[in-house]
Amino acid sequence: MTEDIVVSVDWLAAHLDEVRVVDVRDAWEFDGIGHVPGAVNVPFDRFRSSEGDAGMLPGAERWKTLMEEAGIDSDDRLVAYDDEHGVFAARFLVTAMLYGHRDVHLLDGDFSAWNRGHETTSDAPSTPSATYDVREPEASPLVDFEDVEAALDTDATIVDTREPEEYAEGHLPGAVQLDWRELVDSETRGLKPDAELESILTERGITPDRRVILYCNTARRISHTYVVLKHLGYERVDFYEGSLTEWRERGGPLETEADA
């Protein structure tokens, strides 16, 4: 079994009976287009909340209910996918990690990559009874407003994973711009090769020897970048769940591209 947080479609095909596959697309896609055999459907909007325990998280009780309804136990090995290069699936996995799930993996290449060479089905999956225990994560990457504010005066690399136009309109002082889509290949729909990923990151000064703090608008896009950095072996990666939504609400300083 793999220890990598990212797994290939061929790896998943060889281990379907050993993992719990989670499809986070909308229900009409899951039912109408088809899905990976045995996958359960937990649509993105069901584990997303603007009024949860920590920013955009759904809340521990809601998460527990969602997992038990999907037949997922606390110790299941999860592999999640979507059809958007993995950004929504990554959000599911980061959410699971923050609620103490310890064995999570992203399908490299999303549903389209699977569909090119592997069987799909429209059959309803079996959902066995499950008991899900929300736990404290072994080590939480979450940082809050005060942590990020203090980091502005350190050598931490603060990374804005939004599009260049959004960055230009206003970003955290000193933040590096890295659109999360720069890390995916439009043809394979998965991650670019590791050497290319490392080159892109190094060019931006995002290196494993420095503390990295990620933010976007609502913590969806940074979920994908977080998974990529963990895949590459980065150890000090912090996750600003509140992102710019909270930063603006609390009056945090911003600079425009012209200011920078």
Automatic annotation (TrEMBL):
Signal peptide: none annotated. InterPro entries: Rhodanese-like_dom (IPR001763), Rhodanese-like_dom_sf (IPR036873), Thiosulfate_sulfurtransferase (IPR051126), Thiosulphate_STrfase_CS (IPR001307). One of its GO terms (molecular function) is thiosulfate-cyanide sulfurtransferase activity. It comes from the Archaea. Residues 15-123, 152-256 form the Rhodanese domain. The keyword Nucleotide-binding does not apply. CDD domains: TST_Repeat_1 (cd01448), TST_Repeat_2 (cd01449). Pfam families: Rhodanese. This is Thiosulfate/3-mercaptopyruvate sulfurtransferase.
